[in-house]
């Protein structure tokens, strides 16, 4: 489950940094025209067509995955609609009901929207996202949804590097390295987005090995602050994974909440302390003391 959370964060951070990436997805689905090579990060041009927002329904205290709003028209247009964006990486039988309810709730709270595209990105089309046959009214709404399969997207020839970047999250491990190299050959500026996903997809490799896969000899990179930060993050990730494996063996399967608390810590002290843990109660007592 935690891996899915990390993938979600990575995915949506791309749209926050390059909101016009949505035009590439819409174009891949046969809608509209793609913008010219969106960039990531602070060097992105200020005249992008879209801006990214996480819209919250205050009454229900629920935040939508993401909404992309055209800068030129808050109503949306046929060429540049308002886009409600969802990422669903795992089977979830109640997903389609939730999607329908949230879509109608969004339109209720934003009556100015006239042109809305609901885009759901899935790893493939084999996910179970409903408990069975859907009510006719809900099915009619869902017939308008754009379902984008990363598996199918990755099979397209000469795919745009930014779209190829999205498929990196679902590529088989044996393909991930070659896929990353293809992306970086055409878009070296995507390195900061490629590396975190390589750390996620290739957990058995060291940060230095992943740097080499990305075409960055570590002996040249150690002199730059950014590269050293990436190496340190990779080592911290390795330390977290090792500590969690040891804790699962020593204390039994950890809950999602406990895992999240552990990953928020600096792990040096925990790595020393876990050798003295006998069971989950010892872990809970240690976490209570160190996380308040």
Query: Helix fraction?
Result: 40-55%
Lateral arrangement of strands in the main beta sheet: 1-4-5-6-7
Order of helices and strands: HHEEEEEHEHEHHHHHHHHHH
Task: Give the strand content.
Answer: 5-15%
Q: How many structurally independent domains?
A: 2
Q: How large is the count of helical segments?
A: 14
Number of strands: 7
The chain-level structural class is alpha/beta
State the major sheet: 5 strands, mixed
Q: In words, what does this structure look like?
A:
The chain has 292 residues and is an alpha/beta fold. It folds into two domains: 2-170, no CATH class; 222-291, no CATH class. Helices cover 50% and strands 10% of the residues. It contains 14 helices and seven strands. It has helices at residues 2-17, 21-28, 95-109, 136-142, 150-154, 161-167, 173-186, 191-201, 207-213, 218-221, 225-251, 256-263, 268-273, 280-291; strands at residues 50-53, 56-57, 62-63, 66-70, 82-87, 116-122, 146-149. The chain has a five-stranded mixed β-sheet. A two-stranded antiparallel sheet has the order 2-3. Strand 6, helix 4 and strand 7 (146-149) form a beta-alpha-beta unit. Helix 1 (2-17) runs antiparallel to helix 8, helix 6 (161-167) packs antiparallel against helix 7 (173-186) and helix 7 packs antiparallel against helix 8 (191-201). It is globular and about 60 Å long. The two termini are 25 Å apart.
Give a quick rundown of the structure:
The protein has 292 residues and is an alpha/beta fold. 50% of the residues lie in helices and 10% in strands.
Salient structural properties:
7 strands; two-stranded antiparallel ribbon; disordered N terminus; alpha/beta; 292 residues
